[in-house]
Amino acid sequence: MSRSTLHAIQATTAGSGSEVSPLSSPFDYLNQQIIRLLQDDGRAAYDVIAQKLGVSGGTIRNRVARMREAGMLRIVAVVDPVAVDYESDAMLGIKTAPGVAPAAVAQRLDPYPPRVYVLWGGGRYDLLVEVVCDEETELATFLAEHIHGQPDIADVEVMTRIGMFKNQFLLKHHVP
Fold first, then answer.
1. Are 125 and 95 in contact (CB under 8 A)?
2. Would you give the DSSP letter of residue 122?
3. SS (H, E, C) 4-72
4. What is the H or E stretch that residue 106 is in?
5. Domains in the chain and their CATH numbers?
6. 173, 4 contact by CB (below 8 A)
7. How far is CA 139 from CA 25, 69, 115, 125, 156, in A?
8. Nearest Cα residue to 161 out of 103, 94, 89, 97
9. Which residues contact 43 (CB under 8 A, 6 or more apart)?
């Protein structure tokens, strides 16, 4: 299993610097199977998962608890923007101002609800930011207040959706 971010089941490395128990490791085969099943249904009962994997419900409960305590597993609800039919969405290609770290801009944008995805990448843009809004005016307001004219942003390209060919919004990593 890679260490990529999972939206429905978000795996992150433990930030405390403490050693991760083998029972909470994302590389443990049983944990990978538990995560795979939770990706399909984050509300699945532990006993149902246990039956599918041939272990006890207590084992599943303990494994999930340890992965959560280690900070590598979070179970969250994810809304598919296309299914909800949001009025406006855009991908922003942001070039940060000279001397400004991409992480600083990402942190500044973090509290704003329309922003749903922030990626620091190499290439033409320092950051790719996905923005999803209930109304077109909300996108314009977000851009005016938090993007255009901000001293930490040198340039931005706003790419709006014209059509959707594929939307794998959970970004699932299929575990064997």
1. yes
2. S
3. CCCCCEECCCCCCCCCCCHHHCCCCHHHHHHHHHHHHCCCCCHHHHHHHHCCCHHHHHHHHHHHHHCCC
4. helix 102-109
5. 9-75 (1.10.10.10), 81-160 (3.30.70.920)
6. yes
7. 40, 37, 10, 20, 14
8. 89
9. none
pLDDT at 84: 60
Both structure tokens of 48: 């149902």
* C-alpha–C-alpha distance, residues 53 and 96, integer Å: 47
How do the pLDDT tens digits run along the chain, 176 residues long? Answer: 333 333 333 333 333 444 556 666 767 899 989 988 988 888 899 999 999 999 999 999 999 999 888 887 888 776 665 566 666 788 999 999 999 999 999 999 988 877 778 889 889 999 999 888 878 788 899 999 999 999 999 999 999 887 777 665 544 444 44
Note the pLDDT of residue 30: 92
Q: How far is the CA of 85 from the CAs of 89, 132, 135, 138, in angstroms?
A: 10, 10, 10, 15
Residues in the chain: 176
Return d(Cα 75, Cα 128) in angstroms, integer.
Answer: 24
Residue 130 main-chain phi, psi, to 5 deg: -95, 135
